[in-house]
Amino acid sequence: MESAQKFIAIVPAAGVGKRMQANCPKQYLCINNETILSHTVTRLLSHPLINQVIIALGSDDQYFAESKLAHHKDIIRVNGGIERVNSVLNGLKAVDDKKYPWVLVHDAARPCVSHDDIDKLIYQCLANDHGGILATPVRDTMKRGVFSNDNAKGNAPGNVKGENSTIECTVEREQLWHALTPQLYKTDELTLAIEQALVNGLKITDEASAIEYANLPSLLVSASSENIKITHPNDLALAEFYLNKQANS
């Protein structure tokens, strides 16, 4: 992709990933002898339009200093926050918005994002002069559930007391999308949108939600379903499969 514009990416990596049931934060679990975080950041920095990556890390992070990323010239480390949104905001405050008027934000646990999808996101956002996100259309039938503590049946497989739900209704899937990352926005607009949302006590689950609260438009850019987020133990094997497939293609 040809472009005079260069970009910086923020990777919030201060989480602990409790659902992985691992003895270290999930971003430091390894695939093919390389940490998930390293796979992710290397994928971003290998894109010809991404000059730098800002990584937001927890104050008690004991792993990053021992990684190959610690002394990389194109990586900037900032302190992470209590929530993902706070980590992203700390990263935004480290961005020179004159040099980088646009900023990408990408999950640390998405190592399989392709350069082609990043190209599509950048091209379409610049062409429309506003931000957007990578996303995939929902394909499965969607159900809205209601939590029901009364339905837990002892030690039945898959049942966790207090986590069972019953179906309330079927949700029309035609206009539903799975939000992925990277998400790309103008640096000043995203910073202001997040700051205003936090002041107002709004729940920010991703960058697009802050932009929505600010009544600004966001593109949905269709992307590969291989861009999975590693959340559960079974995801490691799938991510390894996709990384190996991509390396051999």
Shape: globular
User: What structural class should be given to the helix and strand makeup?
Assistant: alpha/beta
> What low-confidence regions span 5 or more consecutive residues with pLDDT below 50?
none
Binned, the helix content reads: 25-40%
Biggest sheet architecture: 7 strands, mixed
Along the chain, the helix and strand elements come as EEEHEEHEHEEEEHHEH
**CATH homologous superfamily of the largest domain, by name?**
Spore Coat Polysaccharide Biosynthesis Protein SpsA, Chain A
Distance between the first and last residues' Cα: 19 Å
Strand coverage percent: 15-25%
CATH class of the largest domain: Alpha Beta
| Gyration radius over CA | 19 Å
Fill in the CATH topology of the largest domain.
Spore Coat Polysaccharide Biosynthesis Protein SpsA, Chain A
Count of helical regions: 6
Mean pLDDT: 91
Structure characterization notes:
With 249 residues, the protein is α/β, with parallel strands linked by helices. Helix content is 28%, strand content 24%. The protein has six helices and eleven strands. Strand 2 and strand 3 (34-35) form a beta hairpin. It is globular, with a radius of gyration of 19 Å. The two termini are 19 Å apart.
Features of the shown structure:
alpha/beta, 249 residues, 28% helix, Spore Coat Polysaccharide Biosynthesis Protein SpsA, Chain A, two-stranded antiparallel sheet, seven-stranded mixed β-sheet, 6 helices, 24% strand, single chain
